[in-house]
Amino acid sequence: MTSKKTTLLVMAAGMGSRFGSLKQITPLGPHQKALLHYTVYDAVHAGFDKIVFIIRESFAQEFIEFVGKYAEGLVETKYCFQRMDKLPGNLPAIEREKPWGTAHAIWCAKDEIHEPFAALNADDFYGSDAFVKAHDFLAQDATDKEFGLVGYRLASTLSENGTVSRGICESDANGHLTAVTERTKIARQADGSIKDEDSGILLHDEDLVS
After folding, report:
1. Quick check: 54 and 123 in contact, CB under 8 A?
2. pLDDT tens-digit map of 65-106
3. With contact defined as beta carbons under 8 Å apart, do 39 and 74 qualify?
4. What pLDDT does residue 23 have?
5. Is the pLDDT of residue 159 over 60?
6. Cα 66 from Cα 80, distance rounded (Å)
7. Can you tell me the distance from the alpha carbon of 147 to that of 118, in angstroms, rounded to the nearest whole number?
8. What InterPro entries is this protein classified in (predicted)?
9. Which superfamily does 7-144 belong to?
10. pLDDT confidence of 181, banded at 50, 70, 90?
11. CA atoms of 101 and 13, how far apart (whole Å)
């Protein structure tokens, strides 16, 4: 089977309002690397042929200097701006500072993507296996009408420092995704159970989350 070329779309236009700064370019750890340095490394080693960063014009130079040039040294790299006036059809621009969500980010990057692609957030850590699974699905199995989601065990995504928000995935007998329900206050309880503290719903270690 011929392997298709693949692109990774990195959504890095967020403002970091809750974090207090631009988390996507915040250095951490002994080597003072951003999470995105690990994302780029893992994506390239998984086989992705191109990385497209969707960013904001206001911090483009800083982003390219800290993260972009690292990516450029490893793989074909493109940049797109998530502009509020870039909308489909004749929709009027709306005055707002915070970027729209995933669908709008993909729309803004569409002219740079001509092959199967995966999209992810710049400020999350995914782990190398996630990139291998995503790449192999796109390179071998994906069609124009078939899509995939890399899921995680809920127990592996909990925090010892407070509650987390997760999309709880439901699937049918064939493993096809049927629903994603957002739970915004999930935590491990003192008795070892996992609960969404907003709804009181009990969850399970093996629940699949996005």
Report:
1. no
2. 999 999 999 999 999 999 888 888 877 777 777 778 899 999
3. no
4. 66
5. yes
6. 16
7. 9
8. NTP_transferase_dom, Nucleotide-diphossugar_trans
9. Spore Coat Polysaccharide Biosynthesis Protein SpsA; Chain A (3.90.550.10)
10. very high
11. 10
Q: Which residue, 87, 130, 121, is CA-closest to 16?
A: 121
Contacts for 52 with CB less than 8 Å, ≥ 6 apart: 7, 8, 9, 10, 77, 78, 79, 80, 109, 112, 113, 117
Better-predicted residue by pLDDT, 154 or 89: 154
Kindly list the domain boundaries of the chain, sorted by start residue. 7-144, 154-209
What separation, in Å, do the N-terminal and C-terminal C-alpha atoms of the chain show?
29
Tell me the two tokens of residue 210.
């996005």
Phi-psi region of 143 (alpha: psi -120 to 50; beta: other; left: phi over 0): beta
177 Ramachandran zone, left/alpha/beta (phi>0; psi -120 to 50): beta
Name the least confident of 46-50, 95-99, 164-168.
95-99
What's the predicted TM-score (pTM) here? 0.88
Handedness of CA 61, 64, 66, 67 (dihedral sign): positive
Residue 169 pLDDT more than 80? yes
Q: Judge contact between 9 and 117, C-beta under 8 A.
A: yes
